[in-house]
Amino acid sequence: MAPHATARRSAGLLLFRRRGACFDVLIGHMGGPFWARRDSAAWSVPKGEYGPEEEAEAAAGREFEEEFGHPVPEGAWLPLGESRQAGGKTVTVWAVEADLDPATAVPGTFTMEWPRGSGVQREFPEIDRFAWCAPEVAAERLVKGQRVFLDRLRDRLTVGEGPAARGDGAR
To answer: What is the DSSP-derived secondary structure letter of residue 40?
Structure first.
């Protein structure tokens, strides 16, 4: 198999908020007609593709702003690493502690022909809704290749990292 000229890469931010000893994560339901009637494995970390001219961290912030419609919240960025998705794309994610209201989201949109073959171009939200979920619920909702980030976040939070240990990527 010939190597791809440019590997597809995506970067995103997984917001979390603490609830005593537990935490919730903010995830988004993918917009458009293919995902409209699905719930299981139809949600995503706010993320998007980027090219070789952009750093992953910058892309993660840009994509969060495009998909949620608000600036990235202040706070330390906890690196959660990379995961290769089933389609071959590599996703890099950071976690940021924040508590945003999902009802205030103003998602970006995309245009596609729908119904297929109709010649009609329609606009759809990239993410049609956001929700705070416990990790167990998020694991059911997230696409399979992103579930690893929940485990990594849980590991980071249970290690008991203090602010000094979170210095990498602090905003």
So the answer is: T
Pairing of strands 9-19, 90-97: parallel
Percentages helix, strand, coil for the chain (3-state, rounded to 5) are 20, 35, 45
Q: Is the pTM of this model over 0.90?
A: no
For residue 61, what are its two tokens? Answer: 């912030």
Q: What's the sign of the alpha-carbon dihedral 104, 108, 111, 115?
A: negative
Q: Between vectors from CA 85 to CA 12 and to CA 115, what angle results, nearest 5°?
A: 85
- CA dist 50 → 16, 26, 58, 83, 147 (Å): 23, 22, 9, 15, 21
Rounded Cα distance between 130 and 102, Å, is 5
pLDDT value of residue 159: 77
* Residues of the chain under the 50 pLDDT cut: 1-4, 161-171
Which candidate, 112, 15, 126, 124, places its Cα nearest to that of 66? Answer: 126
Q: What Rg value do the Cα atoms of the chain yield, rounded? A: 16
Residue 15: which of 91, 96, 74 has the closest Cα?
A: 96
